[in-house]
Amino acid sequence: DADVTQTPRNRITKTGKRIMLECSQTKGHDRMYWYRQDPGLGLQLIYYSFDVKDINKGEISDGYSVSRQAQAKFSLSLESAIPNQTALYFCATSDSDRDETQYFGPGTRLLVL
Amino acid sequence: SQKIEQNSEALNIQEGKTATLTCNYTNYSPAYLQWYRQDPGRGPVFLLLIRENEKEKRKERLKVTFDTTLKQSLFHITASQPADSATYLCALVSDSSYKLIFGSGTRLLVRP
Predict the structure, then answer these.
(1) Is A84 left (phi over 0), alpha (psi -120 to 50) or beta?
(2) Which whole number is the average pLDDT over A53-81?
(3) Residues from chain B contacting residue A43 (CB–CB below 8 Å)
(4) Chain B, 36-65: which have a CB under 8 Å from a chain A CB?
């Protein structure tokens, strides 16, 4: 079984709809992250959480919100989706040591019409 | 401003040759630097980490160097194979932060 899972894997939605992307991990890591990736561009950090009570904005948090329901679960919400949020979204985890090696989920491909 | 840069042009090489990818950074003082592999439509996978006090790190056919004076890391794949074709991302952690900052990646194509 995969250590970091994301649901759904693909999603098509309409402008203005609220959607939630979910991430679960079985690695026992305390740190979790949400990134978006656009074609030909690098990974941009949306939000990150270093433990259940800690939520931090990344570079591009506008239009997104997150919830850390448990150590193993970190959800990303688009409150009112817009077409330029069409992208590939990745969840990642890391252990709280200085190496910050990150383990990524398989990604969610989101299309906003 | 702070930047981490990788060559956006794809690197196209013949099977068996050594592939060399470059990662340059400015206005960071990274405690260490990491390299990841990403296949199309999949999440990045960690390959190697090199610390600021290390000059070189090896793992099987992979070698990474880290020059803090030049502010550059080189990633080498020796005896390259078509299965090595992927995008390779470098990422660094600044000494003042424990967040990873990723480069945009370089696509490697290995021709049989």
Answers:
(1) alpha
(2) 95
(3) 44, 89, 102
(4) 41-46, 49
- The owner of tokens 């006090």 is B53
Q: Are A35 and A87 in contact (CB under 8 A)?
A: no
| Helix, strand or coil, per DSSP, at residue A84 | helix
Q: How long, in residues, is chain A? A: 113
Q: Over 70: is that where the pLDDT of B25 sits?
A: yes
The average pLDDT across B63-71 equals 94
Separation CA A55–CA A19 (nearest Å): 19
The DSSP H or E segment spanning B94 is strand B86-94
Which 3 state secondary structure label does DSSP give A39?
A: coil
3-state secondary structure of B84: helix
pLDDT at A14 over 60: yes
Taking residues B76-81, report their average pLDDT. Answer: 97
Pairwise CB contact (< 8 Å): B93 & A100: yes
